[in-house]
Known about the structure:
- The longest helix is centred in the N-terminal third of the chain and has 8 residues, at 9-16.
- The chain has one domain (4-144).
- It has helices at 9-16, 35-39, and strands at residues 4-7, 27-32, 66-67, 72-76, 79-83, 87-103, 114-133, 141-144.
- It has 2 helices and 8 strands, in the order E-H-E-H-E-E-E-E-E-E.
- The mean pLDDT is 94.
- The strands form 2 sheets. Strands 1-7-6-2-3 form a 5-stranded antiparallel beta sheet.
Amino acid sequence: MAVTAELFTKGMLALVNKEIDWNSDAIRVALVTVDYVADYNQDAQDYFDDITHEVAAGGGYNAGGELLTVKTQTTAAHVLTCSAATLTWPGSTITARGAIIYDNQTGVPATSPLIGFVDFGADVVSTAGDFTITWHVNGIFTITVAS
């Protein structure tokens, strides 16, 4: 399964405009269905109220997703890396095609900036088991600064 991840363009604008504080804000991960893939627009979508086709609440999944914990940010050799602990929805029955990473500090979808979208490449299913997202060893995302 080919997993792809992209940052939302306006999410990076929100980062430089100080709307997002990776370390102290409530960064969440929401799961979306395959129907979201057709609606995905990296350049136009900016806040969580733009997200359609979130996985339905129930079966171990809560609307709005899960909070990232143990968030870190490091810098080295022109690269900023942001990461967090593995996410698990224990004992869940979920079918998801992807994940939306967003800042939920305000708790209001219309003012919760989108950060990134992870497309799993195919539906991932858990049936009365753990649904887990293990982030890449090099972080959830990296930004390389030109020298």
